[in-house]
Design goal:
Elements: H1 9-25, E1 27-29, H2 31-34, H3 36-64, H4 84-99, H5 104-132, H6 134-142, H7 163-173, H8 175-191, E2 199-201
Parallel strand pairs: 1-2
Helix pairs in contact: 3-4, 3-7, 3-8, 4-5, 4-8, 5-6
InterPro entries: Phopholipid_MeTrfase
Organism: Desulfonema magnum
Keywords: Membrane, Methyltransferase, Transferase, Transmembrane, Transmembrane helix
Length: 202
């Protein structure tokens, strides 16, 4: 039986997130004792990426909330790439990795994302092609799948938003920020001697 990556995406993502959080919280950056400028640089980059990812996912949700599988969204972030939610999620994952002040976690997250999400994207696009037919095929020809093409950007003057659904999407968009907050809390407890670490990485 063929494994449905899209169907189990949320469950797999939550399991992966829990495992990642365990390893993130149990890790200390070796740069903290060897080069503080590198730790500052990594954390700053992480914060920028997390901010961009959270704002980007909220922007995407503004267009998609309440319309999934009911309407082909081609404006706003969906005019520059077909999978902007996943694009911003990748940025957020790299940001969280950088917030650990290591180079190891960003590299691992990029590899894991690249290994898994292309299957999810293909599965979703197969479903959308079934729902919207020729319209989606024309959209695929015009708009790149993942990396944005800013020259395609289109934005409507007005857009109807479902506030109830959008509110739920906002909370999911902020999990990058919450994760960094947890990491900072763990680091604070570690500095107080209340929390140890299992290993250290560059």
């Amino acid at each position: 039986m063929k494994f449905n990556t899209e169907k189990y995406r949320i469950v797999l993502s939550r399991i992966a997130a829990a495992a990642a959080l365990f390893f993130l919280c149990g890790t200390q950056s070796r740069w903290e004792t060897e080069n503080e400028l590198i730790t500052l640089f990594l954390f700053l980059i992480g914060m920028i990426f997390v901010a961009v990812a959270s704002l980007g996912r909220m922007w995407c949700s503004l267009y998609i909330a309440g319309y999934k599988d009911e309407k082909l969204i081609t404006k706003g972030p969906y005019s520059v790439c077909r999978n902007p939610l996943y694009f911003f999620s990748m940025i957020g994952m790299v940001g969280i990795g950088c917030a650990t002040e290591t180079f190891t976690f960003p590299a691992i997250f990029i590899v894991l994302f690249s290994a898994y999400y292309p299957f999810v994207i293909r599965s979703e696009e197969k479903r959308l092609k079934k729902y919207f037919g020729v319209r989606f095929e024309e959209y695929m020809k015009k708009v790149p799948s993942f990396f944005p093409s800013l020259s395609n950007f289109e934005e409507p003057d007005n857009y109807n938003v479902n506030p109830v659904v959008y509110r739920r999407h906002i909370f999911s968009a902020l999990w990058f920020v919450w994760t960094v907050g947890i990491l900072e809390l763990i680091e604070g407890l570690r500095e107080l001697g209340l929390f140890g670490f299992l290993w250290s990485l560059y």
